[in-house]
Design brief:
8 helices; 72% helix
Length: 207
């Protein structure tokens, strides 16, 4: 249960740090980009980590993740400083659209917890034969055990993964920040995708 709470808190922090950027990019939307802020926060930090670890400017570890997170915070702070409209849009969002904020957060949290419970009690969630779950967990462990990118290929020692792996970078980032074991992080990320999908669909309809 503690990992579920930590995973949720990490997503809330990333969303908060990305909110000024979301408001600046999507101020023409009725929700000012609020329903996109969680996905944008995760995408932004993961991309900066990936770029840094691919160019060997950052290590793919907790320090590298925290530095990428600080870069996002610095970008948002710079936007707040340079563009007063961003601050005004944020004030409008929380003062005049607080009901929207509450509904979005309740929807995200309920969907996240619902899918966490489903994954916790679902039998045969890791299939004994066939399927891709073993490969996905192997790739997650490959990313977690790599200091730079491309990450280590768990199927071919000494080589990097020759496959699209950015989703596993995002999964590993949240797993490391929440201090969850890889198997637990894998399940929580699955629940997160469901919650983000529900929130994104709500945002599309609302906007």
């Amino acid at each position: 249960m503690i990992y579920t709470l930590l995973f949720w808190l990490v997503m809330q922090l990333l969303a908060l740090l990305a909110l000024p950027l979301a408001v600046r990019l999507f101020r023409w939307l009725p929700d000012r980009g609020y329903t996109l802020s969680k996905a944008l926060g995760l995408l932004s930090v993961s991309y900066m980590l990936w770029l840094g670890a691919s160019t060997r400017l950052l290590y793919n570890n907790l320090g590298g993740i925290l530095l990428a997170t600080l870069l996002l915070a610095a970008l948002s702070a710079w936007l707040l400083y340079r563009d007063r409209q961003v601050g005004q849009d944020l004030l409008h969002l929380f003062a005049k659209q607080n009901r929207l904020v509450l509904v979005v957060e309740l929807l995200f949290t309920l969907c996240f917890l619902l899918w966490v419970a489903l994954r916790a009690y679902a039998p045969e969630k890791i299939m004994t034969a066939g399927g891709e779950k073993f490969m996905e967990i192997a790739f997650l462990n490959g990313v977690l055990n790599s200091q730079s990118f491309p990450p280590l290929d768990p199927w071919l020692s000494g080589f990097g993964i020759s496959y699209y792996y950015f989703g596993y970078v995002m999964m590993a980032l949240l797993t490391r920040l929440s201090a969850a074991p890889a198997a637990v992080g894998f399940e929580l990320y699955d629940a997160l995708l469901f919650a983000l999908t529900a929130q994104g669909a709500f945002g599309v309809v609302y906007n």
